[in-house]
Design goal:
By secondary structure, this protein is of the alpha/beta class. It folds into 2 domains: 235 residues, 3-Layer(aba) Sandwich (Aspartate Aminotransferase, domain 2), CATH 3.40.640.10; 123 residues, Aspartate Aminotransferase, domain 1, CATH 3.90.1150. Helix content is 40%, strand content 15%. The protein is built from 15 helices and 16 strands. Strands 1-11-10-7-6-2-3-15 form an 8-stranded mixed sheet, sandwiched between helices. Strands 9-8-13 form a 3-stranded antiparallel sheet, with no helix packed on it. The chain has a 3-stranded antiparallel sheet with strand order 12-14-16. Helix 4 links the parallel strand 2 and strand 3. Bound molecules: pyridoxal-5'-phosphate. Pyridoxal-5'-phosphate binds next to helix 3 and helix 4. The site of pyridoxal-5'-phosphate has 14 residues, from helix 3 and helix 4.
Length: 380
């Protein structure tokens, strides 16, 4: 089988204006951050998310680190984190010295289960970090209720969910702070990149200082102060104009990207239910009150052994279908830096049975058909 026959898992989208935008930056004298493409991409993100404020960052991880700084997390604080999540979701909080307290997920969506969160809240809990797995919103009603009752901040790690919504509200703008990823595995990318979404004016004022090495350079650039100086702790979280130029070109084609991804997602969702029912396989599902982003299409096998067999079966047919997220609570750093008051059994089960199918905007119909044929030829 030649490499062109392989159906790879993910291919970064190429937007038409990327090279022209890069040329504009390279031939200007301005390739550091906060130039014209940062401004243009930020405006587009605000339009997509309806966020009052957005700041481009170097990654979603950086935006999560900024969240930890903005919430003033410290060693006395606990932050509730889903066991089934990416490492950054936890490590950005652990970096502030806070203890990560792991909570279990709802297997219907792979997202944080509010009942599990309620069971691990203590007087030291300061925040909850939620991910919207695959771009499907978590149960925000339950989480907002717990956060309201205990005075907790909610950070939405919305790495997967640009443009998604929960009950009509855009993901990343429902909690206190929201983060986005533009890593090249994401729907919209610039190689490595991210953003922080904010609704609160006071947090925004501090965020732009934290992002610019602790200085008020952003205010200086707006002409609000005549020089900039060290104001607060911070770091260098702003991306260069080169990244922003690519991101801006991608955001120009956001609707095309999303339509391409939904085409693939819908094709899997239409073709697999009969096979899934016969084989006790659970397919990715989207609750009626949520609009998803077609970031992933996953399915879950009855056992880990059969999941591994399915991955091997697909690999032998030239199809790359990986699993992911080793549960954070049982990982070496999770054991050292976190607490797991209630065993996260559903996260462990989800992690050991999930498989993700190839999904990118230009995946050809013939390739989708090959994936469907290979999957449905497998007897679980
Ligand atoms: C849920 C989640 N959060 C955060 C990240 C980190 O994103 P970045 O690579 O932009 O830091 C990822 C990356 O895949 C992710 O899946």
């Amino acid at each position: 089988m030649s490499s062109t026959d392989r159906v790879i898992f993910s291919r970064p989208y190429r937007a038409r204006r990327e090279l022209a935008n890069l040329e504009t930056v390279l031939s200007s004298d301005h390739s550091h951050g906060d130039g014209q493409f940062t401004a243009a991409a930020t405006a587009k993100l605000k339009a997509i998310t309806a966020a009052p404020h957005a700041l481009l960052t170097t990654s979603c991880t950086s935006a999560l680190e900024m969240s930890g700084l903005l919430l003033e997390l410290g060693p006395d604080d606990e932050v509730i984190v889903p066991s089934f999540a990416f490492t950054s979701t936890a490590t950005a909080m652990a970096l502030r010295g806070a203890t990560c307290v792991f909570a279990d997920i709802d297997p219907a969506t792979g997202n944080l289960d509010p009942a599990s969160v309620a069971a691990v809240v203590t007087p030291r809990t300061k925040a909850v970090v939620v991910i919207h797995y695959g771009g499907v919103a978590a149960d925000m009603a339950g989480l907002l209720e717990i956060a309201g009752a205990h005075g907790l901040a909610i950070v939405e790690d919305n790495a997967h969910g640009l443009g998604g919504s929960w009950q009509g509200r855009k993901l990343g703008t429902i909690g206190t702070l929201g983060t986005l990823s533009f890593h090249d595995t994401k729907n919209v990318h610039c190689g490595e990149g991210g953003a922080l979404l904010l609704t609160d004016e006071i947090l925004m004022a501090r965020a732009e200082i934290i992002r610019e090495k602790g200085t008020d350079r952003a205010r200086f650039l707006r002409g609000a102060v005549d020089k900039y100086s060290w104001q607060d702790i911070g770091s260098s979280y702003l991306p260069s104009e080169l990244n922003a130029a690519v991101l801006d070109a991608q955001l120009d084609e956001f609707e095309t990207i999303q339509a391409g991804r939904h085409r693939v997602w819908d094709a899997y969702a239409a073709a697999l239910p009969e096979w899934a029912a016969r084989n006790e396989v659970r397919l990715m599902a989207v609750p009626a009150d949520r609009e998803h982003t077609a970031h992933l299409y996953y399915l879950r096998t009855p056992t880990e052994a059969r999941r591994d067999d399915l991955i091997t079966h697909l690999r032998e047919r030239g199809i790359v279908a990986p699993f992911h997220y080793v549960p954070l609570d049982s990982s070496p750093a999770g054991l050292k830096l976190g607490r797991t008051p209630v065993p996260c059994v559903r996260s462990a089960e989800f992690s050991s049975t999930v498989v993700r199918l190839p999904l990118w905007p230009d995946l050809a119909d013939a390739q989708i058909a090959r994936v469907v044929e290979a999957v449905t030829a497998f007897r679980v």
